[in-house]
Amino acid sequence: MQYLFLVFLLLFSACSVKEYKHTKTKLIIIKSPQIKFADLGFVRSSGTDIELELFMAGKCIKKIAINKLICVDEGCMTRSGFNTEYLSASYPDNLFQHIVLGLPIYDALNLVKNERGFVQKIKNDSVDIKYKVGEKQIFFKDRKNNIIFKIKEVE
After folding, report:
1. Residues 151 and 100 sit within 8 Å (Cβ to Cβ)
2. How far apart are CA 83 and CA 79, in angstroms?
3. pLDDT tens digits, the chain, 155 residues: what are they?
4. pTM for the full model?
5. Engineering a disulfide at 128: which of 43, 66, 91, 143 sits with its beta carbon 3.0 to 4.6 angstroms away?
6. What 3-state DSSP class applies to 100?
7. CA 142 to CA 90: how far, in whole Å?
8. Residue 138 neighbours by CB distance under 10 Å
9. What is the residue extent of each domain of the chain?
């Protein structure tokens, strides 16, 4: 019985309520085959744990928590499962987390630093990505998979 409780606790702790150290209001635009959103939202973070809370007309319409698993309103799934269902199966597991945090993607492939951030252009058989990170804005566009992320600081 103790082992069953321990297994249950480990399985569901990834989707448990977290204490986040930083909360910022951002303009968030997400366009993918499964998610279409353009409005204000909260980005909460504590280290590499992240929660996106997406609002429309002042009402929370979706929460996405990123830690060991990615949890959405429908339940938790692996990062690769999230990519397959919501983005593209060809993406690396950490791509969504790195975009939200403004970190380099694809192990910093083709990274060009500039005075305010960096730019990455990645093109292969499965992706055609332009990814720009600046002081107040993150922009990701994949032309092959028709996916756009834009996260902009609200002043």
Report:
1. yes
2. 6
3. 554 444 444 444 444 445 656 789 999 999 998 889 999 999 998 877 899 999 888 788 889 999 999 999 889 999 999 999 999 999 999 999 999 999 999 999 999 999 999 999 999 999 999 999 999 999 999 999 999 999 999 87
4. 0.83
5. 143
6. helix
7. 12
8. 22
9. 22-153
